[in-house]
Design brief:
3 helices, single chain, 6-stranded antiparallel β-sheet
C-alpha cells in the first residue's frame, strides 16, 4: 500500500484550512503572511496558492507569478514597514536542500537582523527572474567561491 502524502502546511494556509496564521494580504495567486520565526525586524513570506515545490520547478511561464508575488510584497512594504527602512528591503528564495517547507515561498526582509539568516542557498527574486528569462538553470557554482554551497546562475557573471 502506498503511504499517504505528507500534508503541506503552506497549502493548508493558502486554502484557509490552517487558521493559526493571519493572512496579511491576498491576491489572485498568492498570500502574504508573517514569518513564524522572524530573523529580521520585518520578515514576511509571499506564498503562491499553487503548490510549487521549489525554484527548481520554475520555468519562464512562472515569471508572471513571480512578478505578482514581488509586486504584492512591494505593496506591503509601504503599509508594513516604516519608510526609513524601505532601503533595507530584500526579496528572495531559499534553494533546496536548505528549505524548511517544500512549497515555494518568497521571503521579504527588512530592518535589523535578529538572528541568523543564511544567504547561502538563496537567490534574489531579480536574479531568479533573470535566470528564467534567459533559460539558464540554477546550479551550484562550479568554481567554489567562498562557500561551495553558494548558487549562481550558470553562465552569468554575477552571483544569485
Amino acid at each position: 500500500m502506498a503511504s499517504e502524502p505528507k500534508v503541506c502546511e503552506f497549502c493548508d494556509m493558502t486554502a484557509g484550512v490552517q487558521t493559526q496564521t493571519t493572512i496579511l494580504h491576498k491576491t489572485e495567486h498568492c498570500i502574504i503572511v508573517n514569518d513564524i520565526l522572524p530573523k529580521f525586524e520585518h520578515h514576511f513570506q509571499v506564498i503562491p496558492l499553487e503548490h510549487i515545490r521549489s525554484v527548481f520547478e520554475l520555468n519562464a511561464t512562472h515569471i508572471p507569478l513571480l512578478n505578482e508575488m514581488w509586486d504584492a510584497g512591494k505593496s506591503q512594504v509601504n503599509s508594513l514597514i516604516p519608510p526609513r527602512k524601505h532601503h533595507t528591503v530584500q526579496f528572495g528564495f531559499h534553494i533546496p536542500p536548505k528549505t524548511s517547507v517544500h512549497h515555494l515561498h518568497m521571503h521579504f526582509i527588512a530592518g535589523i537582523q535578529k538572528w541568523g539568516f543564511s544567504r547561502v542557498w538563496y537567490i534574489s527574486v531579480e536574479d531568479l527572474i533573470t535566470c528564467l528569462e534567459k533559460g539558464l538553470p540554477i546550479e551550484p557554482n562550479e568554481n567554489g567561491g567562498d562557500d561551495d554551497d553558494i548558487y549562481y546562475p550558470k553562465k552569468l557573471d554575477y552571483r544569485c
